[in-house]
Each structure stands twice: as C-alpha cells, then as structure tokens.
Amino acid sequence: MRLVIMGLPGAGKGTQAALLSEKFGIPHISTGAMFRAAKGAGGPLARKIAQHIDQGELVPDGLALAVVRARLEQEDCRDGFLLDGFPRTVSQARMFEQLLDEMGIKLDAAIDIVISADEAVRRIVERKTCPRCGATYPGGTEVCSVCQVPLAKREDDDEPTARKRLLIYEEQTWPLVEFYRERGLLLKVHGEGPIDQVFHRVLAQIRGLQADEVLG
Ligand code: AP5
Ligand code: MG
Asked: Does residue 138 have its Cβ closer than 6 Å to ligand 1?
C-alpha cells in the first residue's frame, strides 16, 4: 500500500502513521523527522535546514523532493510506504506525481486527518518528543517509555511558531486537499477524539478502498 498522510501541524499524522506502519508492515517516512535528523548532524546543509524548520517555514521544494526520492529508492519501500508530511505544496505534489510515474508505481490514497486549529495549537504546545528516538507523546508524559530518557520540546513547538505553521499550512498545503480530491485519491478522517478511535476511522477508510479494489 502506498499512502500519503496530510493534516494540520498537530493533526496526528505521525501518531497515526506509526500505527499504520506497524499494522501494514510498511515504512513510515516523515520528512519532518528526516529534516530534524539532518539538522542534528551539523554542517552547512544542517544550518540551511535549521533556518527553515526552526522558524516554522517550509524547506525548499527541491530539497524535500530529493530527500523523498532517495528514501523511496531504498529496498524496504518496494512493497509500499507511508509518507507523513510530504507532499506539502502543489509543486511538490506535481513533482511527486512525476516521480511515481518514473518509478512505475501509483499512490493508493491521500489520507487527510482533520482537526480544528485550536485543537492543533493545544496539542503542539503540550507535545513532548524523545530526543533519542523521536517518539511523540501527548502532554503529561515526562520520560520516553522506550529509551527511558527525559522528553524534550521540539524547537518549533512554541505557540507563536505553531500558529505560523498553521498559516503556512493554510496557504501552501491546504490546496493539496483539492489536488487529491480531483484525482479520486482523497480519504478524509475526523481526527479528534481518542487516538485509537481515530485509528479505527482511518482503518475503516482504508478497508473501503480495499473493498473498491476487489469489486473493481
Ligand atoms: P513535521 O514534522 O511534518 O511537522 P508538522 O506537519 O507541523 O506536523 P507535526 O509533526 O507537528 O504534527 P503531527 O500531525 O505529526 O501530529 P502528532 O502525531 O505529532 O514538519 C516539521 C517541519 O519540517 C515543517 O514545518 C517544515 O519546516 C519541514 N518540512 C517537513 N516536511 C516538509 C516538506 N515536505 N516540504 C518542506 N518542508 C517540510 O500529534 C501531535 C500531538 O498530539 C502529539 O503530542 C500526540 O501525542 C498528540 N495526539 C495525536 N493524536 C491525538 C488525539 N487523537 N488526541 C489527543 N492527542 C493526540
Ligand atoms: Mg509529525
């Protein structure tokens, strides 16, 4: 299965992608996580990436595509993948469409997780992440249950930067909803409520997709 997960910052893309990756045995590819890792590695590219992500701004489209192309060419993506946070602009979506054509593969669906802007800001401001493995936790948790190290805040998770990210989403990423609707690939999921309930809604949409394929 080849999926894209979209939604406002804080919508739960990473949370749902991790569950889907485990359920379907496909790699979870988060461009945000890849850029944060690249930033941590130091050097000129890291500084360029940090300039964008720490301010809540998008990195250039060409760089995002290059990172995704290199990742999709790896062996573990042969039978499917789950892209979290890419594409993020219409230009990225067009370049991605071309890349899939070149690779001779098709996207199965673009899942849009929908929450309100107020809920998004609340979740982002409360979120903690593990500085070692990158796992994400809701507010109230202090230690990573896997690595046993104290959790930290992401550099872009203060309220002003979160609001800027929401504005950038509205201007640059929101048009992708229409882009994928026009191609018959859009699956919309209500993203508020307990995490397992949202996951069941996502699975129900994917089952609908699989039933359509079987029925032709
Ligand atoms: P990225 O890392 O993708 O950040 P984002 O899109 O802003 O989304 P988040 O990771 O903040 O939220 P999420 O939807 O994953 O929610 P999560 O599951 O964590 O990108 C970061 C930056 O990288 C960008 O700003 C940009 O600079 C750059 N970048 C990345 N991709 C790019 C691209 N393609 N092009 C250009 N630049 C790019 O959940 C949020 C919180 O809520 C967590 O604490 C979680 O535990 C909690 N939560 C989840 N679900 C629920 C629920 N149902 N109820 C209550 N709490 C919940
Ligand atoms: Mg995320």
From this structure: yes
